[in-house]
Design a protein that fits this description.
This protein has 343 residues and is mainly beta. It contains four helices and 23 strands. This is YncI copper-binding domain-containing protein.
Length: 343
């Protein structure tokens, strides 16, 4: 999408009553809500330059309590990160982590004053933030020309009881909501169902099978295609209910079903695709702490070697389902479903 059309789309999405001058006076986040202990895809939208000067540098500060931040490279811009220690160690899917990226900078490009663009990163919102809280991501915008046109610091955070709209240069904020709120939106058809784009990758139809009582593993499925010139590799997946996620392959030898982890991940070649589905390659989520119910949605993520951690919404199909919308007769699992749960 060209910057001109992106600008028109952003303007069309403005809430009623918000003037163009006020709306374009902000660096904003495209995704306004996130859930605790879940992946978040941050898309910073820069709406204008500085008094007519082009934007040449954008820096996003990653706040305490947001971990595992990874930036998405942007053609024509140089990428830099600042790393440091967290105030405390946080639990992740791979154990405790005590340090990580604290700031991301895109520099060396030129975004005209009459253009808009997006700068993307991925991170995980920890359970330090309860539903109802707002997490702020300060953004510093540097422009060509120096002096009064040198830049804008979108870093003001409202005090308790203060309206962020009263601030001159407010930091972009994300409201924390309970996971069940997003599930209800999905049930009503209000949640996004379109394929997820992550650079050159397109992720389609991520789904899980519901689990019987007491199950400690769950199977997951998804299709990924690569329109780029470079290969990428799917190396893992996460959901809040599982201790870890792996890629497994199922095969039949001598009439016996066998399953084993896929070492090194799955390569998605340029122009190619992969399809994870029942009875073959699939995601395996282990050490479940809670069951998965048919009809629910789960906010998780896929992890790629190049694209990084990409948030996705998994739909949950019935036990034994062979597709996202399928129901096994009598609700009983097939042989492959039983094998996946026993593994």
């Amino acid at each position: 999408m060209s910057n001109r059309y992106l600008r028109a789309a952003l303007l069309a999405a403005l809430p009623l009553g918000l003037t163009t001058s006020a709306a374009l006076g902000h660096a904003v986040l495209e995704r306004k809500e996130a859930t605790p202990n879940a992946a978040y895809r941050g898309v910073v939208q820069i709406m204008h330059g500085c008094e007519g000067a082009a934007t040449t540098r954008v820096t996003v500060t990653i706040p305490e309590g947001v971990i595992g931040a990874k930036p998405m490279p942007k053609p024509g811009w140089q990428l830099g990160t600042t790393k440091g220690a967290y105030a405390k160690a946080y639990q992740s899917f791979h154990g405790k982590i005590a340090e990580g990226v604290t700031a991301i900078t895109w520099s060396g490009g030129s975004l005209g004053d009459d253009e808009v663009d997006e700068f993307t990163f991925f991170a995980r919102i920890t359970d330090e933030f309860a539903p109802g809280a707002t997490v702020y991501f300060p953004v510093e915008q540097e422009c060509a020309g120096g002096g009064d046109k040198g830049g804008i610091a979108w870093t003001q955070i409202p005090q308790a009881g203060q309206d962020a709209h009263d601030l001159k240069t407010p930091a972009p904020g994300v409201k924390i909501v309970a996971a069940k709120t997003i599930e209800k939106l999905a049930a009503k058809g209000d949640a996004p169902t379109a394929p997820v784009k992550a650079g050159d990758l397109t992720i389609e139809t991520p789904w899980l099978r519901a689990t019987p009582g007491g199950a400690k593993v769950a199977g997951g499925y998804v299709s990924v295609s690569n329109a780029g010139a470079q290969p990428d590799t799917l190396i893992g997946a996460t959901i809040p209910q599982a201790g870890r996620g792996e890629i497994h392959a199922m095969s039949t030898e001598g009439g016996v079903m066998k399953m084993a982890p896929v070492e090194g991940g799955l390569i998605i070649a340029p122009g190619g695709s992969i399809a994870l589905k029942p009875g073959g390659l699939h995601l395996m989520f282990l050490d479940l702490t809670a069951g998965l119910k048919a009809g629910a949605t789960v906010q998780g993520a896929l992890v790629f070697e190049r694209a990084g951690t990409v948030p996705v919404t998994f739909g949950v199909a019935p036990i034994g389902a062979q597709s996202p919308a399928a129901q096994a007769p009598g609700g009983q699992g097939t042989a492959s479903a039983a094998a996946e749960h026993q593994h």
